[in-house]
Specification:
Blueprint lengths: L1 H7 L16 H20 L25 E3 L10 E9 L6 E6 L8 E5 L5 E5 L7 E7 L5 E9 L2 E6 L2 E7 L13 E3 L11 E10 L18 E6 L2 H17 L1
Length: 252
């Protein structure tokens, strides 16, 4: 359709509609704008638009609180370092694995995930296609307080940050084991649907390249030219859902 418009010589405005109820109107319009820009570049020169933007397909309509992770469409850009993953999360329990973000399933050599370790609550990253396949830290993040958690993922290096402080710097190798199995990207659980998290996630942003990690707390983020994925959640709805869950537990 856009090709026909371009070839017609039309020079007027083009309207973009927001018609997805599961997304905030601003995010929906930004996605559509980015998609239109990608189409325009591809029409001018195939391959010049870069990775195709993918719309977020929400698999659940419940608030992103305890036990309510979500899975979205994957994107090859999430699998190709260097990338920067950032989020704000509040985790309340140490007696389980708390999955924050995971790309593809564990069966894929391109899989990566950021989580807290069962028992210690320490921030950890898992990249099964790399050696070593875990990046460990001494930072306990399951204290019921909001934390900014970040990962800089390079082809030969992974760095983890908590509240602007670097807490891990691990060299990694690519031993060429396994194969890439494209899948979704999950927030608050694994793509396989197992393991969740106990707490709340306010936002997650994935960027191409290496971002500077702010040393001061960041409560909100927005899209820019480096953004390849952005998810923002309603904290008030999350709090109500978690409160309801706690009341049910007390009643039992």
């Amino acid at each position: 359709m856009i090709r026909v418009v371009v070839e017609s010589g039309y020079k007027g405005p083009i309207g973009i509609l927001d018609h997805r109820e599961h997304l905030d109107a601003r995010e929906s319009l930004l996605e559509n704008r980015d998609g239109l820009e990608w189409v325009r570049k591809e029409i001018e020169k195939p391959g010049s638009g870069g990775p195709k933007p993918l719309a977020a397909a929400v698999s659940a309509s419940v608030p992103l609180a305890t036990g309510t992770g979500r899975i979205y469409d994957g994107n090859d850009a999430y699998r190709r370092p260097p990338i920067t993953v950032e989020m704000q999360a509040t985790i309340r329990r140490t007696d389980q694995y708390n999955i924050l973000v995971a790309s593809d399933t564990k069966a894929s050599a391109d899989h990566w995930e950021i989580f807290s370790m069962n028992g210690s609550g320490k921030l950890t990253a898992h990249l099964p296609g790399k050696r070593p396949d875990h990046v460990h830290t001494e930072s306990m993040i399951c204290d019921g307080k909001p934390h900014n958690i970040s990962m800089k993922y390079e082809p030969a290096r992974v760095r983890l940050y908590v509240d602007g402080t670097q807490v891990a710097d691990q060299a990694i190798a690519n031993p060429d084991i396994g194969s890439s199995i494209p899948g979704g990207i999950a927030i608050g659980q694994l793509v396989e649907g197992v393991f969740g998290f106990a707490g709340m996630i306010d936002w997650v942003r994935i960027s191409k390249g290496l971002r500077e990690i702010p040393t001061k707390p960041v409560t909100t983020v927005s899209r820019d030219d480096s953004t390849i994925g952005l998810w923002q959640f309603n904290r008030a709805d999350q709090h109500r859902a978690e409160q309801h869950r706690a009341e049910q537990h007390q009643a039992e």
